[in-house]
Specification:
Elements: H1 7-16, H2 24-51, H3 59-69
Length: 70
């Protein structure tokens, strides 16, 4: 399980989208997937940043990384 993403906000998000009853392991699996996805996108954005000879990861780097991630 991830140490970066809290369980409660994810559960609230799921409830807000219509999931009344959700198993704890389902929330844990979603958190794990979100964490892995964020790590991949961050790594891709960082490589774009380094390619541009910058140190700061920008919003545009993240947007491009997300496009490549899909």
């Amino acid at each position: 399980m991830s140490e970066y993403i809290s369980w409660s906000p994810i559960r609230r998000l799921m409830k807000h989208n219509g999931a009344i009853i959700v198993a704890r392991d389902a929330v844990d699996e979603l958190i794990d997937w979100l964490t892995r996805s964020a790590e991949k996108i961050t790594k891709n954005a960082l490589s774009l940043t380094k390619h541009s000879k910058r140190k700061k990861v920008t919003r545009d780097d993240i947007i491009l990384a997300i496009k490549y991630f899909k």
